Amino acid sequence: MTLDLRGVPCPLNWVRTKLALEELRPGERLEVLLDPGEPLESVPASARAAGHEVTVAGETVTIVRR
Amino acid sequence: MTLSDDALERYSRQLVLPEWTGAAQERLAGASAIVVGAGALGCPAATYLVAAGVGRLGLVDSDAVELSNLNRQPLHSTPDIGLNKAESAAAKLRLVNPDCLVETYPVRLEEVNAEAIVAGADVVVDCSDSFATRYLVNDACCAQGIPLVEGGVLGFSGLVLPIRPGESACYRCAFPSEPPAGAVPTCEEAGVLGATAGIVGAIQALEALKLLTGAVPARTDTILQLDAATLELTHVRTSRRPDCPACAPQSGA
User: Fold this and answer.
1) Are B158 and B152 in contact (CB under 8 A)?
2) Do A49 and B18 touch (CB under 8 A)?
3) What is the pLDDT of residues B134-157, one digit of tens each?
């Protein structure tokens, strides 16, 4: 599943990511497209803090639900 | 139920909280709360429940707004003097959050209507100003198994007790009998600052939100005592009384 959150400001981008993750089962992955700058800094950090596995490649963040 | 784009933005600052999930927000949107009293405690308690996204809020108050209320009841304004307090508060609450259905009960909660008023609620917040009303609210909630947040304020003292009937101490377990008439001064005699009442009402809303969503456990079996003069908070442990006439299994209540 891919969530295009380009143009969505903080913290709404993390809220949308978090709610999308809630719909997944543990181990399922979510791809999130984010703007550079604050969004690409804070969303992966929030996802890691919530215990998910996070990898960042360019402007694409892949999150594996814990 | 899914949250609209507007809802996501409106509630974004609480949805960011790790404890506050989308499921918690949806539970709140499907929940019904009753606030007894639209005064010093009811104004802040109702405001924070409505702002947080409770689906339906019923406000119970038979009194009219008076000039002497305005130091501590921030949903009422000078032009509201003479209006029913439930109606006055409801008009402001509907502006705070149009997604919440705010309903008014411009009546005094009494023995004959207590059970009907709280029926169907998912939580009751008791912001009344008399011991007699508190026992009525407590007994009605215990009889129907409705979670309840008791609260009171007098002078610089405040008190909050969240209750899950049948699981934790009820108001009657903690305070088995009403103090004799005249033993406790009234708000008129002892005085109260609006800011003190605001703290207590806000804590009542907080505990009600915990009871409704389960995002964080409510602090049941604990009487929270506030000394607003020193800002000391004291936790007094309390527990269920097996012979409680309101909540014991054999009480039939």
Assistant:
1) yes
2) yes
3) 999 999 999 999 999 999 999 999
Residues 32-51 (A) with a CB less than 8 A from some CB of B:
46, 49-50
In B, residues 173-212, which contact A (CB 8 Å cutoff)? none
Q: Do B8 and A15 touch (CB under 8 A)?
A: yes
ipTM over 0.95? The verdict is no
Catalytic residue among B43, B100, B170, B187: B187
Residue listed under structure tokens 């009384």: B241
pLDDT (tens digit, 9 = 90+) per residue, B208-242?
A: 999 999 999 999 999 999 999 999 999 999 999 99
Residues B151, B126 contacting (CB under 8 angstroms): yes
Question: For residue A35, which of A62, A2, A1, A4 has the smallest C-alpha distance?
Answer: A4
Q: Is B187 in the active site?
A: yes
Share of chain B above pLDDT 70, in %: 98
Residue type, B227: D
The pLDDT, as a whole number, for residue B253 is 46
d(CA B212, CA B225): 22
Alpha-carbon distance B205 to B193, whole Å?
19
Nearest chain A Cα distance for residue B15, angstroms: 6
- Per the CB < 8 A criterion, the answer to whether B110 and B116 are in contact is no
The predicted pLDDT at position B223 comes to 98
pLDDT at B187: 77
**In B67-150, alpha helices (H):** 85-96, 114-118, 131-144
Q: What is the dihedral of CA B151, B90, B3, B120, to 10 degrees?
A: 60
Q: How far is B212 from chain A (nearest CA, A)?
A: 19
Topology (CATH) of A2-64: Translation Initiation Factor IF3 (3.30.110)
Strand partners, A33: A4, A60
What domains sit in chain B, N to C, each tagged with a CATH number? 5-251 (3.40.50.720)
Question: What would the mean pLDDT of B176-194 be, rounded to a whole number?
Answer: 87
